[in-house]
Write a structure and sequence with these properties.
It is a single chain. The protein has 327 residues and is an alpha/beta fold. It has twelve helices and six strands. Helices cover 47% and strands 9% of the residues. It has a six-stranded parallel sheet with strand order 2-1-3-4-5-6, sandwiched between helices. Helix 1 packs across helix 2 (60-71), helix 2 runs parallel beside helix 3 and helix 9 runs antiparallel to helix 10. The longest helix is centred in the first third of the chain and has 16 residues, at 96-111. It is elongated.
């Protein structure tokens, strides 16, 4: 993992942790906003970090870096370095401090994924401003100069934040691998299934993806049917990442055709997990039900259009043939 550091003040010493590749970005103070933005984008392309850690306060460059990093799907960690204390914040709209806050400080706070406070006092000041909408961590105080508790803490924070936002880094090949394994599990060997190349895949990200799609057991079954040897998938727990909005687990409680399609419409087709799609495929492909009655119920509740969309998606995922479609 690469971490790109930037400090707004030369006196600020960044925390260079072990176990990650640390890089420093030098600020060119002669450049304007747009030129500096292009410079930051070029640095992101050259260094290609997963994490961008910015330090300091009241510098418009912090906002530009945070904005550019988020545009490039990087994780942004922001350490204000005690810049959010009461002595540094001026809310009088007729004074310069208010506009500096809105133009410089607010942008860095908005685009940061995690804020790292130096102590509990600074965290309290952030809470008083009402800007602690994201994830906030407090840097532990070292007991001595040789104490590396801060380095260990930051390394853990980098990993946790990257795991939380793994979808920014997952590749199309990793998604295709999961889809192919699910297809093997559902259909067995089929000439239409794309055989994945597992050489360059990150199975750590794959483990999070299959967990969120609720298909860990199905992917393992598909790998066995495809006779592909894959590493043991990491068991994902809640303490490995920050809380967030994840898809609904558990599949459909009622397995009748009308109930499943109605539930899928309520959840939203974009929010369905691969587990939901496998159950819908099993419904259309293998279950024995009264098609005429199902069509009448769907028409009565205006679900025919949703059913067609579901069938089209199943055709893409599992090559569902026209003979198994009810519409």
């Amino acid at each position: 993992m690469k971490v790109l550091h930037y400090t707004s003040n030369p006196t600020i010493v960044p925390i260079l942790t072990d176990g990650v590749e640390n890089c420093m970005m030098q600020a060119d103070y002669q450049k304007g906003v747009f030129a500096f933005y292009r410079y930051v984008c070029s640095q992101l392309d050259v260094v290609n970090p997963m994490v961008v850690h910015i330090y300091g306060s009241w510098d418009w460059r912090l906002c530009v870096i945070a904005f550019a990093a988020r545009r490039h799907n990087r994780v942004v960690i922001y350490s204000p370095m005690r810049g959010l204390t009461s002595s540094n914040i001026e809310w009088n709209p007729f004074k310069r401090g208010f506009w500096r806050f809105m133009l410089c400080q607010f942008g860095a706070l908005r685009y940061a994924d995690v804020l790292v406070m130096q102590d509990n006092y600074e965290e309290g000041m952030l809470h008083a401003t009402g800007l602690d909408k994201g994830y906030v961590e407090v840097l532990p105080a070292p007991e001595s100069e040789a104490d590396e508790v801060q380095k260990v803490f930051m390394c853990s924070l980098y990993n946790k934040t990257v795991d939380t936002h793994y979808m920014r880094f997952i590749t199309p090949q990793e998604k295709q691998f999961v889809t192919s394994m699910v297809q093997f599990a559902m259909m067995g060997k089929d000439n239409q299934i794309v055989m994945p190349n597992i050489k360059d895949l990150s199975f750590h990200r794959v483990a999070f993806y299959v967990h969120d799609e609720d298909v860990t057991d199905i992917v393992k079954e598909g790998a066995e049917k495809a006779q592909i040897s894959i590493p043991e998938l990491t068991e994902v727990t809640d303490d490995m990442r920050y809380p967030g909005k994840y898809k609904q687990f558990g599949g459909f409680p009622d397995k009748s055709p009308f109930a499943m399609i109605k539930a899928a419409s309520k959840i939203g087709l974009k929010n369905l997990t691969l587990r939901h799609w496998t159950e819908l495929y099993q419904l259309f492909r293998y279950e024995d039900y009264d098609e005429d009655k199902a069509v009448q119920e769907l028409a009565k509740h205006n679900l025919k259009r949703t059913t067609k969309k579901i069938q089209d998606r199943l055709t893409e995922l599992f090559f569902l043939k026209p003979g198994y479609k009810i519409l």
